[in-house]
Structures are given as C-alpha cells and as structure tokens.
C-alpha cells in the first residue's frame, strides 16, 4: 500500500499507484479543494503543492509522490506557520487567503483554490515578483468569471504582507 | 455565516407529517440518509409563496433563515439577499442564513437568469423580512405594553425608545414557533412578489443595502470549507460517467464492451442513445469511459464546418419582425448616405470551470437530486417527466456549481444521475469530463447580422434595417436535457430568443427582423442571450455611420440618444477615459504597434443597466496581435445594492467579453464540435487581461436593474472600433484572432 504525506500527515492510499492524485485527495482523503476541471492539466483548478512547487493533481499518478510533501489549500495555514517556525493557530489563514478575502476576489470560486496554490508556489520562490512575473506565472490558470484583476492585486498584497510577516 | 451542511435537510413545513419535529416553524433538522432508508410513499410538500413561513424563519436564538427559490451562481446575490433581510429586519448579516433553490423548502421562483435577481427578488426578500419585523413589533408592543410606534430595534433586540432598558429580543418573541400568517402574492415564478401589511423602508434610510457588505460566501470559499455540488457525497454513493455520441444526431448502433475487464465497474447503462457507466470509484468510471467500445451511426447530411453559412441556409423556425416603425426600406431609398454591412459572430461555449455534475438518489417512490441548476423547479419538472414520475415525488436541492453564465438553466447531469441511480438502485454522482462539457453543453448560438442604415444630407440617422440570422438561444432551456434527448421522448422547447428586440437609438424608420433557424445544435443563452452578438453589430455600424457623418464617435451617438440616463452614462465614461473629441481616436503606441480607442454602449435597458465602455487597443499589423491595454466602463443600474459586488460583476463581465471578442469560437467538423478542451477553445489568460480596468458607477435613485450581463456585451464592439481608430480597417467578424487579423491587415 502506498503512503503519501498530505498537509503534514501520512495517509495510506487504497487506490492503485497509477490513479491521479486528485481522485485520492477528493474521494479518499476528503480534501475537496483541489477540483476536477479538465483532467488534462490545462486549467489549474486541481493544483496542489508538491514540495512547495505547484503541480496538476489531475494527471499526477499518486504512486509517484511517495516521500514528498503534498499541500492542498487546506494545508496552506500550516505551511505558513512552519515557514515562520511558529505553531499553527486554529482558524488562522495563510496571508494569501487573507488577501483573497480582503480583495473580495472569488465569484463562483471554483478556480480559486488552484489560484491560491499557484500564488503560494510563486511567492515561495520569488517573494517580490513584478507585475509581469505574476502574470506570467498565473498564466497557466483559467478563471471563467473574470476575477483576474483582483487575483493579480491580491497576489501583490499577499507578497507584501508575507515579506513583512516573514521578518517577524 | 456558512451554508448548512449538504444533506436532505428539511423543514417543518415540508415534512411535519413525518413526526420528526415539534411544532416550531423555524426548526430545521438535518439527517443522514442511509441508502436503504425505506420511507413510505414520499411526496415532497409544496412550499406555498402565500405563507410567510415559506420565506423567513426566526429561530429562538435570534438567528434568521430566509428562503428563496432563486440561486447564486457565483455573482454574489446571496449576500444581497442577506443585506435585504438585515436591512428590513434590523439583524446583523452574520445572524442570517439564506437557503436557496430547494424545491421542498423554498418557494418556487423559476429561473435565476437574465440578471434579474436583484430586480425581482430584492422586493419579496425585503417584504418578507418587513412582515416578520412588523409582527414581532406587534408582539413586543403587547409584551412591553407600549404602542408599536414607540419601539425601536437594534440587532434583533426590540426596545422602548424612551426607556431602552425595557427590551425583548426576536428569539423570545417568536418563541420557537412559526408565524403562521398568510401574505398576498402577485406574479408567479420569477416575478413573484409579496404584498403584505408592512411598509418597506425608504431607500434613503438604508444602512446595509447600498454598502459594500463583504460577500457571505467568500470566507468559506477561500478557507476551503465551502461545499460545491461536485463535493456532495452520500452514503453508498457510486460514481457515474456518460459516454456521449461522436456527432450531433449520431445513433447508437451497438455497445461492444470492454477490451479488458475494468475493476470497479458496476454497470453499463443503455437507454436509447444514452450510455452511462456506473463504477465504485471515480477513477474506475473515468477509465471505463475511455475503454468502452461503442459503434455510432454516421450522420447523413451536410457538415457544420462552415457553421455560420449553415445558420443562414438552415430551414427557418420563424422570420420574426421584432420591431418596426416607419418605413425603413423607403427611407433607405431616399437617404443621402447608405451604409450596409454584414457581421459574423461565432458560436461560443459557456465553458464552466467545473464540468456538469449532479448527485441523484433514486428510490422506488422518490428521487432526490443535488444539482447546480439555475432553475431548480424547471430541472425538477424536466427530470420528473423524463423519469415518468410525478413531480411531487422529485426533489431538487440546489448546491452551488462552478459559474454557469446561463448553461445550467438546464442541468444535464441531473438527468444523467437520475437515470443511473435508478439503474443501480444506489445514489450516483455524475460528473462530465472536459470533452463532454465542451462538446455537448448547449452552445451559445452564433449570428450573421446584416444591417443597412441611411443618413440624411445633414448626417442624421433616418433609416435602420436590421436582419439577424441566428438560432434560438433557448432550445435547451427546458424539455431538452441531453439524456432525455438521447433516451427519446423529450418535447423540446420552441421559445425563440436572441434577436434584437428594440432599437438603441432614435431613428424614425426602423425594422428589426430575426430569421430564427430550426435547431442546429442544442443551445442555451450565455451571459446576455444575444446581447453581445447584437451590440457587436449595432455599435460597429454606429461607428461606421459616425465616420461617414464626419463626427466624433461619442458626439454622434449622443446626438442619436433619447434616454437621459444613457447619455449620462456615456458622458461619465468619456470623462473617466479623458476622451478627446475628434474624428480620429488614434493613440500613441509602442514601437512597431499602432493604437486606437473605441466606444460601445447598450441602451435598450428596462431590466438591464445602462452601460457604455471605452477600450484602448494596441495593434501589431504585421503579426495580427492585439492587446486591450485599458478599458473604462460606465454603468447606471439604479440604486446599487452592493457597490463592490457590482464592480466585481462589471470586471468579470468585461474580461469575459474581451475573451469572447479575442479568442472564443466553437468549431465543427462534420456534425461534431472540435473545440473539446481549453487548448482548442482558448480563453483570455492573465498575460492578456488589461492593465487598467476602470469603472464609473452612477448610483441613481431608480429601481435597481441587472448588472451581471450588460457590461459583458461591450468589449467586442469597443475593440473593433478601436482597431479601426488605430488602423483604418474595419473588422466585422469575431473572434479577433491574430491569424485572421494578419490576413485582414495584409489585404488592405
């Protein structure tokens, strides 16, 4: 049986190793925020972090992820706490999530888990991206409601907060 | 505030006969529904709009639940409904929960479409809350022994004005009971209104409505605790997929089985041309769908490769004169200048980010469906008819899906799930694959529009003769769920919609004619019905006419507008964009590019906001690339219920409009749609969205009207008008893809 680590906890997987990670997360682990959008790695609603790097869980065989650290939207607050070497406080959100709420970003919201995951991946690698860099990195994600302007602003705002808080 | 957990939650009104509840109108019970649950003959109670309890419940703890048959597909109307209740009842937003679109718990209010949620549903939501408040005040007056007019209320606590220590809260006043009063209604379905004793607040006294109350659904959506229909999970639930035909009209000749056994497959279900597979896991269902061998018939007849020509040549359902005044043909014969053009607008796809998904639990005597439908009672009637069940034995529980923009007025997955659940006798979740959604969701109909317009010697518009070849945008609206169509026996839907219904501009001689074809592909309206298509043609023509008249594009439009509100919106957006009056609207551009600015408006509002937009567009004539760098939008939607919510809709509609202008086109080979994913049906990306999107809102003391669709119609016309300003070339067909533009620029 394959064991994967998701949001800091190990999980035994019942599905076969070639099963896309997405179905395991949603149907075995009850983690609903990675969504099914295309099954083709085209839209980004299924994005999760694997060792801090955004990947498309709809095409990633679960068996290839043994020993790696998988993070879904549910795990972003923990990730942020770990990054600062502090304990995670219940109910506290990641600065990216806070920026999403402050900016009233989502409409339907279906794509937004993937958007926040991609933003976390970007800001981990590049804490101070330019506007053009943000656009370039977010380019692989589709939003049909047209919340792009708010997403771009929220990523910038989150980056600023994370740079400040990261020092603290 | 969070939505309640998904389940077959029910309320006292609907199931008091089941003896689960004590008398308590507000009491809400949630129970897990094991799949073996043997409920005796199960008819879901009707929810009478004439009972106040159907609209609002006040709980002993002072929290409030308001019920509406309407749904929120992600535009934020749930928050506006909560604002309406908070406003009239004087309770905090956080104490209010809105239950939407459950046919066993909410009054029937028809389709949530056409941007009319605020226009039609704010009044009854307010009236219900005001009635509740009046009744509670009367009770408080009796309890506190003062006249009603000496009472005041803050956050659900009623007190005596002169002696605030004497107070009682709503929870104590309702005492765990229901109101048990009737109210009068007018209208029905979408237009249902309440008439009661209570007087609504004067809008000048609003404290909650009119403010940018944060969206009540956003915290859960961002924190990750939100439940979409895709996340609904029932005990014993199996996973279903559909296997859809290879072409429109193809018949199933045979199901030839799997080349190898697929572990986990429970059943292959065939009914007419409907094929579904049920499996124990989602991955097994998806794998089985890939591997199942089937033979489909070849479809006879000409292909749809040139779909707009097909549209023009197709047998007609109707040649409908939508509007006529004066004599356009005679006026054209006498006009000093005549402009005649034809515009081509492709078929589009709604492209929901989450493909169609529903869960059904069929039992011998009942059927419960969890669906993202925009029309819960419509889906209920359709599925009941398809299943041969009485409507009262079917319950549809709306759960939010991905944004649907019209597509989910007919929830195909609900029908699939119902058929599959019945076939296996277990709850079944059906989720379409991306190719299913792109190839088989109802299309947004394209159009070929020919317009002839005449100016007199003074450059005044005197004739407008407008012909639109399209197909109805409503064939899939009802009676045409895909599974029903494939299984046979569906009645179809003959409603014709999508033509331009009335003129935007003052002109003495007008004829608006729509040639509706018989159905080519199953269609349903997409964010404005035919508004985007018609405004593209009308506003392109107006720009050409302004040019012929030697006038500034905005000044010329102004001179032909009769409506003062429309004029004010156009003036406001012109000021916002610092529009420089003149016949040339060429702008400075980066090296190798040219740039221009264009304008478009839509002023036929009565239920829709007045909108005008300006786009600044850069064009590379050697590559055909364009970039829409700045967009300005002006809007008058009457009294604004939630300014930030309105802005969010304007932003979203504008970006989607740019996407349709630049990129989107459903294409066919033979009778099959070939744009089956996001690679073949590209939409606007982050690198392509404008740098600047500025909005000017005229908050006018008028009835609130719809904002979800109007701004969406402007970009295509504003962009081609800007391309003309930059290049002197008129582009009259969409989408504005580089390969096409390069050819157009190269040939001029």
What this model shows, in words?
The complex is a heterodimer of chains A (168) and B (748). Chain A is of the alpha+beta class and 168 residues long. Helices cover 39% and strands 12% of the residues of chain A. Chain A is built from six helices and five strands, in the order ββαβββααααα. In chain A, strands 2-1-5-3-4 form a five-stranded mixed β-sheet, with helices on both faces. In chain A, strand 1 (2-6) and strand 2 form a beta hairpin. In chain A, helix 3 (95-102) packs across helix 6 (148-167). Chain B is an alpha+beta fold and 748 residues long. Chain B has a seven-stranded mixed β-sheet with strand order 13-14-11-21-18-19-20, sandwiched between helices. Chain B has a five-stranded mixed β-sheet with strand order 16-24-23-22-17, with helices on both faces. In chain B, strands 25-26-27-28-31 form a five-stranded mixed β-sheet. In chain B, a hairpin with a 5-residue loop joins strand 3 (56-58) and strand 4 (64-68). In chain B, helix 2 (77-89) packs parallel to helix 3 (117-144) and helix 16 packs across helix 17 (715-727). Chain B is globular, with a radius of gyration of 27 Å. The termini of chain B are far apart. The model of chain B is unreliable at 12-40 (pLDDT under 50). At the A-B interface, helix 1, helix 3, helix 4, helix 5 and helix 6 of A face helix 5, helix 6 and helix 16 of B.
